[in-house]
Design goal:
The complex is a heterodimer of chains A (114) and B (113).
Chain A (H helix, E strand, L loop, with lengths): L3 E4 L2 E4 L5 E7 L5 E7 L5 E9 L2 E4 L6 E3 L9 E3 L8 E8 L9 E2 L3 E5 L1
Parallel strand pairs in A: 2-11
Antiparallel strand pairs in A: 1-3, 3-8, 4-5, 4-9, 5-6, 7-8, 9-10, 9-11
Chain B lengths: L3 E2 L4 E5 L4 E7 L6 E7 L6 E7 L4 E4 L2 E6 L4 E6 L8 E8 L8 E2 L3 E6 L1
Parallel strand pairs in B: 2-11
Antiparallel strand pairs in B: 1-3, 3-8, 4-5, 4-9, 6-7, 7-8, 9-10, 9-11
Chain lengths: 114, 113
C-alpha cells in the first residue's frame, strides 16, 4: 500500500558525526519536504524539493543537507555543524501544481545526541 | 514572526461535548487552510481543509470555520471522543505560491471519558 516510509525510527548521533535520515515515498508525488519538531512546538521547514535534482532551503536549513536524485527518495543529512540536532524529524510529500496543498507525512525519526 | 498562531497550548473537554480549537494568521495572502492531527511519536495526519472562498467546511464530526476579516479559523469536533485526544496543528498556504505550508504551534486536546 502507498505511503511514506522514514527510517530509522530512532537514531543516535555522536558529537562531530554526520547522520542521514531516510525518506522514501511510493505515492508518485513530485514534492517532498523535511520538517523538524521540537517539544511543545510546531513544525519548522528544513528543506523542500519540488522536482528531482532540485531543492530549496526552508526556514532552518543551517547544519542540514539533502539530495533528490530519485523521485521516491529525499534523504536528510544532519551534519556536525548542527549544534542542537535533538528533535523529531518528519518527512512529507505532496502532489505538485495548483492542487490543494495537502502534505502527507511519514511516521518520523527521533534523533538524539549521545 | 509567527504567521500562524495557536494561542491555546492545551484544551480539556468532556466526552460527548464540543471541542473548539482556534487558529489565527497574519498573512492576508494565505488562501488555503488545513488541520492536521498528531499522536505522540507519529507523523501528522490530514484532517480537514478549507479554501478562502468558503467560510465553512464539514466532514462528519469535524467542521472548520474561516473568518477572513478576522484572519481566524476554528476547528469544531462534535461530539468529542477519547480517541480525539491528540495534538492538532493548523496550517496555511498560498495556493499559487507552491505547496508550502506554514504551521501553527499546535494545541493538545484531551477528551476525558
Amino acid at each position: 500500500d502507498g505511503g511514506i516510509t522514514q527510517s530509522p525510527k530512532y537514531l543516535f548521533r555522536k558529537e562531530g558525526q554526520n547522520v542521514t535520515l531516510s525518506c522514501e515515498q511510493n505515492l508518485n508525488h513530485d514534492a517532498m519536504y523535511w520538517y523538524r519538531q521540537d517539544p511543545g512546538q510546531g513544525l519548522r521547514l528544513i528543506y523542500y524539493s519540488q522536482i528531482v535534482n532540485d531543492f530549496q532551503k526552508g526556514d532552518i536549513a543551517e547544519g542540514y543537507s539533502v539530495s533528490r536524485e530519485k523521485k521516491e527518495s529525499f534523504p536528510l543529512t544532519v551534519t556536525s555543524a548542527q549544534k542542537n540536532p535533538t528533535a523529531f524529524y518528519l518527512c512529507a510529500s505532496s502532489i505538485q501544481g495548483l492542487a490543494k496543498n495537502i502534505q502527507y507525512f511519514g511516521a518520523g525519526t527521533r534523533l538524539s545526541v549521545l | 514572526d509567527q504567521q500562524v498562531k495557536q494561542n491555546s497550548p492545551s484544551l480539556s473537554v468532556q466526552e460527548g461535548r464540543i471541542s473548539i480549537l482556534n487558529c489565527d494568521y497574519t498573512n492576508s495572502m494565505f488562501d488555503y487552510f488545513l488541520w492536521y492531527k498528531k499522536y505522540p511519536a507519529e507523523g501528522p495526519t490530514f484532517l480537514i481543509s478549507i479554501s478562502s472562498i468558503k467560510d465553512k467546511n464539514e466532514d462528519g464530526r469535524f467542521t472548520v470555520f474561516l473568518n477572513k476579516s478576522a484572519k481566524h479559523l476554528s476547528l469544531h469536533i462534535v461530539p468529542s471522543q477519547p480517541g480525539d485526544s491528540a495534538v492538532y496543528f493548523c496550517a496555511a498556504s498560498v495556493l499559487t505560491a507552491g505547496n508550502m505550508l506554514t504551521f501553527g504551534g499546535g494545541t493538545r486536546l484531551m477528551v476525558k471519558p
